[in-house]
């Protein structure tokens, strides 16, 4: 990263941190309808990926990109993600009701939910998610298996975001920015490690 300019109070890393928080706030607002959550997170990842290519990381650029891309496929991806989340919640509620074999079922359901979350979040971090969710999901599923360390980093980022939101509720409106930054970094890390043909 370039060094601090003369008279500049904060360096470029602090500027990027502020941009990540502003993108996180706008992403939180865009996620409120719930079915727009995958598109909103994917757009945040695309905007943050542009920081490495000297494109502005601003809330205005985020809104412009999101407005361009909200289409039926994005809303369908959001509906599928919401249905999966509701199914997992219902399964865990049934396990908590004391059904026979409930502890084993709860562990299995949580494991399946964690795997699905990793693939879905890694898909949001991929550049293909802006235009083609199926290709993004296929690539994310391959990466989730081939890059176990990256999948662990995704789970760690989600756990950190959840812990921050739990500890201080107003942080819940800012955590999508750092989460999108983590997803983008994991994808860039993976693509940098893959040798070119």
3D architecture notes:
- The protein has 197 residues and is mainly α.
- Helices cover 74% and strands 0% of the residues.
- It is built from 8 helices and no strands.
- The two termini are 29 Å apart.
- 32% of the residues are buried.
Summarize the structure.
The chain is an all-alpha fold and 197 residues long.
List keywords for this structure.
transmembrane helix, Integral membrane protein, membrane, mainly alpha, 197 residues, globular, transmembrane
Beta percentage is: under 5%
Global mean pLDDT: 87
Secondary structural class: mainly alpha
N-C termini distance:
29 Å
Q: How many H/I helices?
A: 8
Order of helices and strands: HHHHHHHH
Question: Roughly how much helix do the residues carry, as a percent range?
Answer: over 70%
Beta-strand segment tally: 0
Q: What coarse outline follows from CA principal-axis ratios?
A: globular
Instruction: Report the uncertain regions.
Output: none
The gyration radius over C-alpha positions equals 18 Å
